[in-house]
Amino acid sequence: MASGGLQLLGFVLAFLGWIGIIISTAMPQWKMASYAGDNIVTAQALYEGLWMSCAMQSTGQIQCKVYDSLLKLESSLQATRALMVAAILLGLVAVFVAVTGMKCMKCMEDDQVKKMRMAVFGGVIFIISGLAALVATSWYGNRVARAFYDPFTPVNTRFEFGSALFIGWAAASLAILGGAFLCCSCPRRETSYPPTRGYPKNAPSTGKDYV
Prior knowledge:
By secondary structure, the chain is α+β, with helices and mostly antiparallel strands. Helix content is 53%, strand content 11%. It has a domain of 135 residues: Butyryl-CoA Dehydrogenase, subunit A, domain 3, CATH 1.20.140. The protein is built from 4 helices and 5 strands; from the N terminus they run αββββααβα. 28% of the residues are buried.
């Protein structure tokens, strides 16, 4: 029962992490900057994501523009995109594999060994998915921090961490933690020893055996 509860907890955490990775990938707030200009009326917030850039005016109006061409993007942004998409696809595979190996499901009930292996394999895929998302968000965040502290970067174009990065970090951590729980939910095999053979006790000598 304890391993079943740990398995369910791991799957829930990993699944929530996978949903968070999807949300983080779709959000445009990977980095943000506020620019007030000479007049507070012209104040606006600028957001940039993996797929589009947005500007929110002081009036609350938001305008977004999808990037024109994939080939015109920076190679680092393309790599970040690829890692996040790979994390989503790996998470999707992990969901189906882990569900098949869950003890509460009736799939593969005839072979419990293969069923446990499926759960562990799903946990491993969840861990890889979380690591891919963690590498992508950390790499992107490092680029934002380096550009922010670069003295040659104009003040009005310095970006800071957006909310999508924090969601991505939290989601990647949940996916890794949940995958680790799934891997640890497999019960250890107990070593079975052959039953000890009892030796017949020698009957007490009565002295009548010898004449």
